[in-house]
Amino acid sequence: MTHADRLLAWYDRHRRTLPWRAAPGERTAPYRVWLSEIMLQQTTVATVGEYFRRFVERWPTVEALAAAPLDDVLSAWAGLGYYARARNLHACAQAVSDRHGGRFPEDEASLLALPGIGRYTAAAIQAIAFDRPASAVDGNVERVIARLYAIETPLPDAKPDIQVRAARLVPQQRAGDYAQAMMDLGATVCIPRNPRCVICPLMQNCKGRKLGIAEELPRRAPKAEKPTRRGLAFVLLRKDGAVLLRKRPAKGLLGGMDEVPSSPWREGPFVESSAMSEAPVPARWTVMTGLVRHTFTHFHLELTVARAIATTGRLAGLAPGTSWCELNKLDERALPTVMRKVIEHAVKA
DNA sequence: AACGCGTGGGG
DNA sequence: TCCCCAAGCGT
């Protein structure tokens, strides 16, 4: 019995039902495979579920998604993080509609040419949507392979070796099930801490287990410490319960998303009086007690929050790119989580 | 080829 | 409270 046979037999018994997963023996439509894979990049299954359902209900086809305004896509994506994914998702939908007549290509080169589709996602789409024997190596598979072969080289240096070994195991038959089985194994059995080796279908083959070092693998290069940036966020409220928002630049951190105005976020000591000079409008700003803390990929953020009530006279001439949004309609806006926390902090206190 | 890029849950 | 890390990609 080969590695793939053992894994597929396990998968047939333990296959999970997921929103994007077709019934046994059937294929998920390429649009759904693609959409779920983009959402699942660096994001947990539990988080993605509801977003996936909302997206496919609102945009049932790639052409519908391509026809949507980018801002609608960003709003629907709000909270999922890594917002470049949403921008690329939209661009990719348009490319598939325009270049490929609304059908996803099956070959690796064409897939890799689409925005937001890299090595892993191209392989996952080939395998899951088209049952082609492509090797999809994500973080789960890296862990499984590193343990299976007791690869002691730390990531990311071990990646080429892992890629080669993973590719050698891919079966010609049931490639889609195999790809999902490897990821499921990593997500439910060969987990980062306290791996459940005793129920693992590959236990007999696992060199890491034999050596007693499975849980320590994969080793990783030490990561850099995160600096802390600080700033002052301005929540301007209208008496009827609306808040002033502005649009962030199209690229970079939270690119294309909405935010409340704020002073620049900088490392080092926070000087409230100088930050206050960045206020979007002259008003009686009240500095709230407490801080809003948020951690991004590469830095911690501590925002002090100032609040003011807008007087009707100065509402008209606000800077371009700014707009009012009623507090009960914030869900419809492209507000990242950090900004929801800021507004909540300002309103509830 | 490093680095920039979000967020939430678990230990 | 903190650290880890998750179905990675673009530059």
Task: Report mean pLDDT, rounded to a whole number.
Answer: 95
Measured on Cα atoms, how large is the radius of gyration? 24 Å
Largest sheet: 8 strands, mixed
The count of strands amounts to 8
Shape category: globular
Give the termini distance in whole angstroms. 64 Å
Helix content: 40-55%
Q: Helical region count?
A: 14
Structural class: alpha+beta
The run of helices and strands is: HHHHHHHHHHHHEEEEHEEEEH
In the predicted model, the low-confidence regions spanning at least 5 consecutive residues are none
Q: Strand-residue fraction?
A: 5-15%
Domain HhH-GPD: 39-188
Keywords: 4Fe-4S, DNA damage, DNA repair, Glycosidase, Hydrolase, Iron, Iron-sulfur, Metal-binding
Catalytic activity: Hydrolyzes free adenine bases from 7,8-dihydro-8-oxoguanine:adenine mismatched double-stranded DNA, leaving an apurinic site
Organism: Reyranella aquatilis
